[in-house]
């Protein structure tokens, strides 16, 4: 074994930022290994296991020897099933061959970004938003053009703000509904305005619907109801409870599909086969019944955490009607930034949350994301601990 | 639903070429649907199912609820197990934290290309070679600099040829052993020379070992025996019989791992969880026994197909000692190019093979790739049909 010089990594690769929450997660694990009780409100993953009918379908697929490659765009019957799901649940007409099954929403993001964008292009994204957008864009030499959104806009992008932030190099605009980290929804009208703007400017509208189905006290929509020429990212991870299976999909305009299919052949070969067979059971009535019960649980948790945090003095001014996140503004009197706040809260009372810095710059130092991916009694316990922590903060 | 204009796809995306074999595969399916018997010698996938101990591990993982995200670089115990595998089987010291588990070798290719290369860079690749290299490179704005290799070089790149083809923009060199489409191996000495050349020029050496273990009449090696500063792509797909599970790995120099792990977080989140637990059983003695029996089968098939094709007048001058491919030069008197040959052979005698055009330009029109991914009696039947086809060709 010879010693090695420093490898010459590409500057773009070196520039990829770590998720701040990873450091917290590691520290949390260390504390747990030392016997400390840690409550995890930082995790972007449902605590529920994959529903039993999906697991049963996976077992049956293994029994049947479904372990070989599928077509690059996925099992035809799964694409058909998704097409029916859009028709039945959203009244949207999305032909099966406009749907490409991908390795997670991550695969869909790579596919759509690489299909639409070239180095030097710009993409409008919300600040705050899901961190991977801007990291993956930068890896591709594309500049994410962040538009500050806050509680006044319900943390969503308006056509007016998008227009104000536009540049001649903007080739696409990405929004999410429900959004991460805020859990807010994008109204149909607001979406229609963004779509009209994109169409007028010759840009693509990309809508991330990975939290679709996890919507409370509001109707659930898809951007695919609106028009054919939107690119919709989705996944079996969140509503369907299949995070570890890494299965997502992309709905694209008909005219883009052939190119994307060729790209998928080269980038992925195909998505995971047992996962695709398992996902065929995701739309069965027995599965949907389980998922709807879970949705009711998530709503209860949201209500408990929202009320509790507001009572403790956190500002949650938007309407977090979806996903499983609350993006909470620290009480004004807290004299530290959100990174310091999250770090100390973990050390002192064993509650983990994600500092705003993972989602962008705008207001990041004043916000923390709490995920309600644990049971009501745990949320109550967490609120008690946060209360104690705030008392300690005040007394300093 | 509104009608849509032609979407503005990125020129690079539009430039991704389809695999020619896909058109043949589609035609083969149509013929099969019409009741025709088709022999598939075009498929780059073992016909064997995933070994039972791996399936059993997958079932147990589902039973245990292993359906949540793993760390981005994969299950620590799988990385440890691979590290031991390198030590035990290849006498190579590869620390577990130098191994990143990826969504197939495809994920490893994306990770290593994006980590090392920027637009405008060049990469030396063999012509012929695995088509995805050049497609993925071009998507990233990197120019694949093809070096013609042929039977005289055993279809492998020599340091002399690499040096002759070098340009100031070359930042990496990718070779494969065993290689696709030729099935030839890269000698240790030849590899050491390429490594020395890369080191002297400050370029990275990337070695694709996806067919590792599928080696006949020759010792099985890993480039990781040689040095720490090579990037090795591998997969559970071929030797381990797990194609549809989409699980691979990348071994990288220690100093590159942290950046790559951050990239993996953003590009993939994590590899498929059940597949990772299943793969833990890939190294069990019971599994390896099955795999070694299969290897013996592949060797018998290779011998039968190699002898048969040579008897029919195909030129196979290299030493195809690995993978499950033969890259056969059409008999000189055949008056059509390999694309036409493959198309007509499929139509007339129902044998599917891959035209050389999928692997590059050099000699592509004179070569066809045959995969021995079917049983001996089927290979015999295929040889009989090809014989009949050649007789028909002669009589025209």
UniProtKB/TrEMBL annotation, chains A, B:
Gene Ontology biological-process annotations: amino acid metabolic process
Keyword terms, alphabetized: Aminotransferase, Pyridoxal phosphate, Transferase
Entry cofactors: pyridoxal 5'-phosphate
UniProt keyword annotation of rRNA-binding present: no
Residue ranges annotated for the Aminotransferase class I/classII large domain, each copy included: 38-386
Record-listed E.C. numbers: 2.6.1.-
Family to which this protein belongs: Belongs to the class-I pyridoxal-phosphate-dependent aminotransferase family.
Protein name: Aminotransferase
Originating species: Marichromatium purpuratum 984
Domain of life (superkingdom): Bacteria
EC class name: transferase
InterPro entries: Aminotransferase_I/II_large, AspAT/PAT-like, NHTrfase_class1_PyrdxlP-BS, PyrdxlP-dep_Trfase, PyrdxlP-dep_Trfase_major
């Amino acid at each position: 074994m010879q010693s090695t010089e420093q490898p010459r990594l590409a500057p773009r690769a070196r520039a990829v930022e770590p998720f701040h929450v990873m450091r917290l997660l590691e520290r949390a694990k260390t504390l747990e290994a030392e016997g400390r009780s840690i409550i995890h409100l930082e995790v972007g993953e449902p605590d529920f296991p994959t529903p039993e009918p999906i697991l049963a379908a996976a077992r049956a697929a293994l029994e049947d020897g479904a372990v070989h490659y599928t077509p690059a765009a996925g099992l035809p019957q799964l694409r058909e099933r998704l097409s029916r799901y859009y028709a039945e649940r959203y009244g949207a007409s999305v032909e099966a061959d406009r749907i490409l099954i991908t390795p997670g929403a991550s695969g869909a993001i790579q596919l759509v970004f690489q299909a639409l964008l070239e180095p030097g292009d710009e993409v409008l994204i919300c600040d705050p938003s899901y961190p991977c957008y801007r990291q993956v864009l930068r890896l591709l030499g594309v500049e994410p053009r962040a538009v500050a959104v806050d509680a006044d806009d319900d943390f969503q992008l308006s056509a007016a703000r998008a227009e104000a932030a536009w540049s001649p190099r903007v080739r696409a605009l990405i929004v999410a509904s429900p959004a991460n980290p805020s859990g807010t929804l994008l109204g149909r009208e607001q979406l229609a305005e963004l779509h009209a703007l994109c169409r007028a400017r010759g840009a693509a509208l990309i809508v991330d619907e990975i939290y679709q189905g996890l919507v409370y006290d509001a109707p659930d929509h898809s951007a695919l109801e609106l028009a054919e020429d939107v690119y919709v990212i989705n996944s079996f991870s969140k509503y369907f409870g299949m995070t570890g299976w890494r299965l997502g999909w992309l709905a694209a305009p008909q005219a883009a599909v052939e190119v994307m299919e060729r790209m998928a052949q080269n980038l992925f070969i195909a998505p995971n086969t047992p996962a695709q067979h398992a996902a065929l059971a995701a739309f069965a009535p027995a599965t949907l019944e389980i998922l709807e019960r879970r949705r009711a649980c998530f709503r209860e948790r949201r209500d408990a955490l929202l009320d509790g945090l507001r009572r403790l003095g956190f500002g949650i001014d938007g309407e977090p009607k979806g996903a499983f996140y609350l993006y909470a503004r620290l009480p004004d009197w807290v004299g530290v930034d959100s990174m310091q706040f999250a770090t100390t809260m973990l050390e002192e009372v064993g509650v983990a949350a994600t500092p705003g810095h993972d989602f962008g710059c705008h207001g990041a130092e004043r916000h923390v994301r709490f995920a309600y991916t644990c049971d009501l009694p745990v949320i109550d316990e967490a609120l008690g601990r946060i209360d104690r922590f705030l008392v300690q903060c005040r007394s300093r």
